[in-house]
Amino acid sequence: MKVSIIIPFYNNWYLTHQRMMELYKFIPTPCEVILVDDCSTEDITGAMGFWRGKTQHSVKAIKTPRNLGFGGAMNHGCRRATEDVYVLLSNDVQVLYNFVPDVIKIIESEEKVLVGNEFYTHDTGWNVLNINGKPKIFPYLAGYFLACTKDAWKDLGGFDDIFAPYDYEDMDLSTTALYKGYKLIPINSKMIVHFSGVTIRNVNPNRENITYRNQQRFIGKWSKILEDE
């Protein structure tokens, strides 16, 4: 199986540059790397071209038609991906080892699976929600590192656009996967380190309101589905 690694970003090119350096250093197997510029306001055209021809990986640099947010930019990148397996990597995640064999091993061992690094089954402060009058814990794989086959991504429908620009898109994808009979399996590697919030810190002072809005959208979506079932 060959791998496409999708990395969206908005400004802060230094973060993406660091990820590219880590992929070059720690992942020897050639992969397709898709850099998705989510309509950055910084001029980074030359910076994006730096990695072409300088790494074992095939690098594609694309740009969204407008600012789509985290999930939308990931979806946009996945539409350009051509390999068998998609790895969705946030640019604020430090990669210190070759994760490709671990991802492939899990995917080849399960018919329907969504892979992540961290799997939350406890109360994280985000995932205990009132559904049809009862509190329910929604287990989910953290969205900063996710992987599945191309066919699985198509079956799951990608990230739901209603959660743009960010928050709750990973919980929604995980819930969709469970609802469709997929297993959620984490790698649990300490060599994949998420610097939480770096990519959106100081970008949107309205973050708390967006989080609450998307929480209500998640409740509205899944209350109806679970009630119907």
The CATH homologous superfamily is termed Spore Coat Polysaccharide Biosynthesis Protein SpsA, Chain A
Low-pLDDT residue spans: none
Q: Please state the structural category.
A: alpha/beta
Estimate the helix proportion, in percent. 25-40%
Q: What does the radius of gyration come to?
A: 17 Å
- CATH topology (level 3) name: Spore Coat Polysaccharide Biosynthesis Protein SpsA, Chain A
Please tell me the overall pLDDT.
Answer: 93
How many structurally independent domains?
1
Tell me what the CATH architecture is: Alpha-Beta Complex
The CATH class = Alpha Beta
Helix and strand pattern? EHEHEHEEHEEEEEEHHEEH
Task: For the largest sheet, list the strands in their spatial order.
Answer: 3-2-1-4-11-6-12
N→C terminal distance? 36 Å
Shape: globular
Q: Give a short account of the largest sheet.
A: 7 strands, mixed
Strand content: 15-25%
Task: Count the DSSP helices.
Answer: 7
Number of strands: 13
Written account of the structure:
The chain is an alpha/beta fold. It has one domain (3-228): Spore Coat Polysaccharide Biosynthesis Protein SpsA, Chain A. It has helices at residues 13-26, 45-49, 69-80, 100-109, 150-156, 169-179, 207-228; strands at 3-9, 32-37, 58-63, 85-89, 93-95, 113-116, 119-120, 128-131, 134-137, 140-141, 145-149, 183-186, 192-194. The strands form four sheets. The protein has a seven-stranded mixed β-sheet, with helices on both faces. The longest helix has 22 residues, at 207-228.
How do you describe this structure in short?
By secondary structure, this protein is α/β, with parallel strands linked by helices. The chain contains seven helices and 13 strands.
